[in-house]
Amino acid sequence: MLIRKISLLDDLLNRIAEKLQLNQSRKDKAEQSYKAVSKWLEDDKTFFGKHDVNIYPQGSYKLGTTVKPKGKDEYDLDFVLEVNYDYEKIKPVDLLKHLERRLKESEVYKDKIEPKKRCVAINYEGDFHMDIIPALPKNIFQYKDIKISDRKLDCWLDSCPKGYIEWFESKFIPQKLILEKAASVEELPVSVPYLFIQPLQRIIQLMKRHRDVYFENGNEEHPPRSIILTTLAGTYYNSWESENEALMNILDSIKQKIELNTYGIIEVVNPANHKEKFSDLWNDKPHLYKHFKEFIYSFHEKWKKLNGINGIDKIGNQLMEMFGEDLSKQVISEQTDYIDSLRKVGKLGITTLGTLIPTSIPKSTPIQKNTFYGKISEN
Q1: Can you tell me the distance from the alpha carbon of 332 to that of 312, in angstroms, rounded to the nearest whole number?
Q2: For residue 370, what are the domain limits?
Q3: pLDDT at residue 348 tops 70
Q4: Reduced to 3 states, what is the DSSP secondary structure of residue 17?
Q5: What's the predicted TM-score (pTM) here?
């Protein structure tokens, strides 16, 4: 039996995040696409085919924190192409060139690719961008640590995506999601009804969505990287089941960390490998750190305001300001319709505290997305 106390605000937050998810159709396309890319690279007779290669998802896709870019249809999906080869025997930029060359040899990919700083992107218009980051193992004894190349600097950089995933999942509450792992081409995370998705995953989706709304009319260079928000959220998350409570505490902690570094810039690193510094860009471009601080302070104040107001109209206005008008109106309408439908059949009683307590779900009951199994109670 699953029993979880959920506020009406948490319900709205979950519904918002659910609509930002990559849908199952696109997940299926992404899985088919990256397995096809893997096969094409394995058949390369010049370089990749001579060595064991392993392509696997990382970033928001693997973490289960994807967010549909505001105003765009395409999602950004990150994949690592790990080649079993000694990184000291090849120049960093040459690894990127090998990947670009091989993709250009394909009639399927040659018109879709875009070289980037540390990866080669394949653009599936209207669906997603697949960023493929070529990498080599740091050494045979450190299977998690890898070396990635930088096109501009032509140097090797430390990274540890698998270690980061393990750190992130260690933050999950007991009913954590277990992502299926495979020896060569790992399966992508499966679609899960929102009631069973980790609160930490939802919190990060909400943070990323508000970031996109906050910086919508500003310079696209200004928004903080998703990995920074994810790392900070994971660092300060403390097993809260309520997304609302957790986000308030996380924003409190980030704000305090900033304020304790009055004369400096906070450092955000990969918890699995401290040599991988996610916040390095702030040292070179301090104005980006200034924008990050302003964003956190603003977000913190808005969240306090959200928790201090009553009435669905006022709550709705605040949600629209933070997450976008259309999206917020849609989830408020859905919640209202759902509650009304239960009232009509006598399955719902409204109390002043407005708390949802899901009851046990019969094994024979199909679990549907965007559905609460429960009632509103004073408890």
Answers
A1: 8
A2: 6-17+192-377
A3: no
A4: helix
A5: 0.84
